[in-house]
Amino acid sequence: xxxxxxxxxxxxxxxxxxxxxxxxxxxxxxxxxxxxxxxxxxxxxxxxxxxxxxxxxxxxxxxxxxxxxxxxxxxxxxxxxxxxxxxxxxxxxxxxxxxxxxxxxx
Amino acid sequence: xxxxxxxxxxxxxxxxxxxxxxxxxxxxxxxxxxxxxxxxxxxxxxxxxxxxxxxxxxxxxxxxxxxxxxxxxxxxxxxxxxxxxxxxxxxxxxxxxxxxxxxxxxxxxxxxxxxxxxxxxxxxxxxxxxxxxxxxxxxxxxxxxxxx
Lengths: 106, 148
Prior knowledge:
The structure holds two protein chains of two kinds.
Chain A: E1 4-7, E2 11-12, E3 17-24, E4 46-53, E5 56-63, E6 72-78, E7 83-91, E8 95-105
Parallel strand pairs in A: 2-8
Antiparallel strand pairs in A: 1-3, 3-6, 4-5, 4-7, 7-8
Chain B: H1 3-16, H2 26-37, E1 43-44, E2 47-50, E3 54-57, E4 61-67, E5 77-84, E6 91-96, E7 104-110, E8 116-124, E9 129-140
Parallel strand pairs in B: 1-9, 3-9
Antiparallel strand pairs in B: 2-4, 4-7, 5-6, 5-8, 8-9
């Protein structure tokens, strides 16, 4: 149901610092806006984004309603060994989605 | 309608727009920063906050925080926090980093409900806090329009 766009290199030299960019389709409804009927639209945001490399957490971010809709996050990671990067988004209304990216280290 | 009245009317409309329900204040932002740094006094420097000084659309504003750090196991950036003073809540995000990141750089896109000051605080592994701020002018604020 959700659309995810991840930009990460497929290969990296050992020790290279690579950039990982991730975009996910999500309304990031703030919980402060009135809807067409004048009532406040309930908050629906992604609260947490994490990235693991072969199971070890390398990056985590707590988000607030001030993060723009369709949250974009970019960060760096040192490529020490070939492996799988798992990006995970969790939030309101039981939102939990993950995406896997394989990076081969030469 | 003559020109003068028309202009006055337009000005009034513009002034009415920024009516955001309960917004954070400088005090709320200072309090949110205090919750992160505790008794420590953040030092100006090392942190660079890249955000356009003038944005047309507050709904999506690119923001990048860069912290000068070797990012080794002995000396690295533990966390980066971003705050604002006029959105409904003072917190924007808190990112947790470590030596595995290689570079202490985090980018995202944020919403801004009004022209305001954005502040980034970085915590390094030696327990010190570093701070930087940037002023942003927003011509079309986020969070005002009704959703359709």
